[in-house]
Amino acid sequence: MNILGIETSCDETAAAVVRDGKEILSSRVATQIPHHRPYSGVVPEVASRLHTEWISRVVQEALDEAGLKPEDLDGTAAASQPGLVGSLLVGLSFAKAFAWARGLPFVGVDHVKAHLYAPRLAGEAEYPFLGLLVSGGHTLIARVDSFDSFEVLGATIDDACGEAFDKVAKYYGLGYPGGKVIDELAARGDPGAYRFPQPRLKVKRRPCDLSYSGLKTAVTGQLNQFLRPGYQWSPENLAASFQKAAVDMLISQVEKAVELTGITRVTAGGGVAANSLLRRRLAGHPGFQAIYPPLSLCTDNGAMIAGLAFPYLQRGDRSPWGLNAASRVRAFKGYLS
Ligand code: KG4
Ligand code: ZN
Asked: Is 83 in the pocket of ligand 1 (CB under 6 A)?
């Protein structure tokens, strides 16, 4: 079954063709980062406008790369939630129109579930596993038992981890997107230079919940001190100390999830999974086996959408033509039910 998957939930216009939920025949990702850089963040109106301009070309490229014609497809899919609604609507409407015009089955899929499916495309993650998803929009740890059976063990109660990287970098004028810049600076800094607090969550809904707003505030609040006359500070040390605190938080919640479930396979996904310290800490951990899909599958892509669509389409699921986009999915409580 050849499935076309479309992903436009944020600032990547992506399309891919995947066969039988595992064989990636093509994957094209057009990134909008240069267009959002002047604003140090994603501007929703700019994002949806660019998706509209780029979507036909990106889908055509995905078909060409796969060496397929539209009549060779057996189904289409698009991310329908969560994300920026204006952006989601572009991919969703395109996929629905394409499927309708071609008489193909169509299914809308959840972007977060698709991220958690991504390691399956690399063929390494047997169920059950723990999925750590850390990106600019999401931070969660889930027990994953099958393509549509999950339990969220913890999620951020405020900012996403990548968002904290981006905001710290923006505040200090280090560049955009912040994750990569901070990672690079941190390589030359001392992670022990400044000590930032780990959160103590008073009201936890789930055992592995996290919070990044306190860390973000502590790090940005440090700037006033740095600016005092004669005070010596280095962006490298700041980056290294912040990064250590951000990664420590993730590792300790993963350890807790392993302890709670007894599951020792841990996959990582989302843009922050590119972080070199997080990778080292997960890979070298004696308590579990870390599984990393290639980075192209960690960040937003169409292959994870096409991949996850396969088991749904195969069992006969179809979305109605009236399926709408949703920006959020009932917080995270009972979210992936
Ligand atoms: O998954 P992604 O490409 O897009 C979504 O947010 O959906 O993730 C982007 C996030 C940004 O916040 C970016 O700063 C962060 O991933 N990121 C990193 C690194 N590379 C990208 N964070 C930490 N270290 C990195 N090396
Ligand atoms: Zn994503």
From this structure: no
Report CA(231)–ligand 2 centroid distance (Å). 39
Distances (CA, A) of 127 to 26, 205, 241, 264: 25, 25, 35, 11
Ligand 1 and 271: CB distance under 6 A: yes
Q: What is the 3-state secondary structure (H, E, C) of the chain?
A: CEEEEEECCCCEEEEEEEECCCEEEEEEEEECHHHHHHHCCCCHHHHHHHHHHHHHHHHHHHHHHHCCCHHHCCEEEEEEECCCHHHHHHHHHHHHHHHHHHCCCEEEEEHHHHHHHHHHHCCCCCCCEEEEEECCCCEEEEEEEECCEEEEEEEECCCCHHHHHHHHHHHCCCCCCHHHHHHHHHCCCCCCCCCCCCCCCCCCCCCCCECCHHHHHHHHHHHHHHCCCCCCCCHHHHHHHHHHHHHHHHHHHHHHHHHHHCCCEEEEECHHHHCHHHHHHHHCCCCCEEECCCHHHHCCCCHHHHHHHHHHHHCCCCCCCCCCCCCCCCCCCCCCC
Q: Which atom of ligand 1 has the smallest separation from the CA of 162? A: 12
- Interval 314-337 mean pLDDT: 77
Q: What is the structure's pLDDT at 334?
A: 37
Total Cβ atoms within 10 A of residue 192? 10
Predicted model pTM:
0.93
Q: Whose CA is nearest to atom 26 of ligand 1?
A: 275
Ligand 1 pocket check for 162: Cβ under 6 Å: yes
Averaged pLDDT for residues 281-295 = 94
